[in-house]
Amino acid sequence: MDAIHIHGGNALFGETKIQGSKNAALPVMAAALLIKDVCTIENCPHISDVLHMQQLLQQLGCTVSHEENTLVIDARNLSMDTMSGENVTGMRSSITLLGAVLGRCREVTMAYPGGCVIGQRPIDIHLSALRKMGVAIYEKEGCFTARVKSLEGAVINLPISSVGATENVILAAVMARGVTVLQNAAKEPEIATLCEFLREAGAVIEGIGGSVLIIQGGHELHGVSFRVPADRIVAGTYLMSVIGAGGNVFLEDAPASQMRGMLKIADEIGAQIHISREGLHVIADEHKRALPYVKTEIYPGFPTDMQSPLMAALTTAQGISVIEETIFEDRFRVAAQLRKMGAGIELSGKRQAVIIGVDSLLGCEVTAEELRGGAALVIAGCMALGETIVKNRHFIERGYEDICRDYRNLGVDIRIG
Ligand code: EPZ
Fold first, then answer.
1. Model pTM?
2. Residue among 403, 412, 408 nearest 376 (CA)
3. What is the DSSP letter of 236?
4. Whether residue 138 has pLDDT greater than 80
5. CA distance 165 to 254
6. 189-199 confidence digits (pLDDT tens)
């Protein structure tokens, strides 16, 4: 069955190693497409989104191998510039290939990308930025064709600091003629990782880590060997699990410097956090405090991907917590499933959730509808008395390499079934 079974109600003890970052690996894989050489990407997680991206690259003519956690991409000979099928519509980050394929092939036809059910996920900002670089877009029956004679550097000011749009502009700009100035760029760590990868390949990018990026196009790129950092959202998921269920764990490789927003929240709830070069030591406080108000924000604020995991942890906090979701318009869907487990969650509109702490959750059968909501249900399963069955495990496998292995390392009675 496509499910996860958890016998919860016990604190977490032990240590687990944090996998490589999904949201860093995907744009780096797209960037490898720009390079007529061989690139090696280390610490790349075995997750279905990476597999789908791998298949898209192979569809375009790359040879790709994924041994252990090392990906080798040979993009010397591309064979086509049209992508379609489930791999494109079924995965949001396929849109990141748009800028890369245009940078290499000058034309691409693709279906509008799918993604989670957390919101409309439009790509208008991507398309309008690429138009400023000389790209013509022709839309037809749920697909679109993007075509450009020669990408031109431009001054682009993003109306929203979209992570994906920032990545697409960077990937097109390194191949464009002239300089691109990207204002209101997203500052998520995954953007800096992409820029560092491209810099190592020979690109000239200034302002890395900030909201204004200056990219000098036209530099010849060469193959690199690159290591993807650990996944801050996976580390944050396990952080919220200990806060929710209690215990004392060590999260090896957890990228603490990228987790300031969530560590601040963990401190407010009452967890003790010890940061070291090797990772994060987390000791939960059995009397976890409610959060009068917390909102999701762009980096370095509290990340939207951590909103559902936090909601799960707060279901048994003492008092009333309020979470505001400012990034996506429909990211509270998991509340209905948590209520089935006894959580006291009221939604006011689509942007605010009020969580009234209860003594404990009770295990039952729940259904994941998207990636981080699914992870939140596993957290709730660790907290709940009795057995919890989380259906639609495949959503969770988009972003977690082996969530059962990781939780078993932390002493949880968990299995797939
Ligand atoms: C990336 O999605 C991540 N995905 C998401 O993680 C993450 O939640 C999101 O950034 C925000 O941090 C990957 O990196 C693969 P956005 P992305 O463009 O790029 C609106 C996960 O769980 N918008 O920054 O799609 C959009 O609707 C996933 O790993 C437009 O209106 O996010 C949203 O409200 C979920 N028009 C806001 O901007 C556009 O053209 C932020 O979206 C693009 C975006």
1. 0.96
2. 403
3. H
4. yes
5. 27
6. 999 999 999 99
The full set of domains in the chain, from first to last, is 3-18+230-416 (3.65.10.10), 22-227 (3.65.10.10)
Start-to-end CA distance of the chain, whole Å, equals 5
Best residue among 92, 144, 162, 324 to mutate for probing ligand 1, ranked by most atoms within 8 Å of CB = 162
Backbone angles phi, psi at 249, to 5 degrees: -135, 165
CA–CA dist 417, 412 (Å, integer): 15
* Cα 259 to middle of ligand 1, angstroms: 18
* Tokens coding 194: 């992409």
Between strands 155-157 and 247-252, the pairing is: unpaired
Of all atoms in ligand 1, which is nearest to the CA of residue 118? 35
State both tokens at 2: 């496509």
Cβ 223 vs Cβ 39: under 8 Å: yes
Please count the other Cβ atoms lying within 10 Å of the Cβ belonging to residue 287: 9
- What amino acid positions are annotated as catalytic residues? 116
Query: Does residue 92 line the site of ligand 1, with CB under 6 A?
Result: yes
Of all protein residues, whose CA lies closest to atom 8 belonging to ligand 1? 305
Q: pLDDT tens digit string along 392-409?
A: 999 999 999 999 999 999
122: preceding bond cis by omega (within 30 degrees):
no
CB 93 near ligand 1, within 6 Å: yes
The residues with which 366 forms a beta bridge, in sequence order, are 390
- What's the token pair of residue 110? 């693709």
In angstroms, the Cα distances linking 85 to 52, 72, 143, 260 are 11, 24, 11, 39
| Residue 276 Cα to ligand 1 middle (Å) | 30
